[in-house]
Amino acid sequence: MGVDSESRNKIYVALLRGINVGGKNKIKMAELREALERIGLSQVKTYIQSGNVLFASPDDESSLRKRIEQEIAAVFGITLTVVLRTAEEMEHIVDDCPFSPELIAEAAATCVGESHYVALLPDAPPPSGIEKLAAANNGDDEYRIVGRDVYLLFRHSVRDAKLSANLQKLGVPATVRNWNTMNKLVEMAKELRE
């Protein structure tokens, strides 16, 4: 269907922070889709139960973020941060990974579970936050900050890593997705554009 018959529409990916994690902040994805369609978003699709939503809209990121956050608060009674990326931005995140395939394979060989993640932020972290994260990193795991995204590579387990526990030191909310989810969202965004 392309870009919703209006060439000015963009495909966006909304990443909701803290949805359906550990039984907290549960939202059924079908209800979320309906709520977002009511505020004028089109081609709304969700992926898994952790708050990944794709949609088309001609609006800008800032106004969309506010509308989505307000709608979720009004309909579901949950206050959360929504991180938005365009389909093109998601493709760049995946295509421009700063870790080499060899480094990723090396980490995957020793990690329990997934080793490769991306933390997506609504805004670039301030220099003070970057310094705090650097001081808190135990050196075992690696990260690279590229604008509003933090590439993460874990060598043992994301659950036990000091790096994941210290992401809040950046001073900007972050929502984290594993590499497989990132690739699936890029694939779904491409399908929406076709």
TrEMBL record:
Pfam families: DUF1697. It comes from the Bacteria. PANTHER family: BLL4334 PROTEIN, DUF1697 DOMAIN-CONTAINING PROTEIN. This is DUF1697 domain-containing protein.
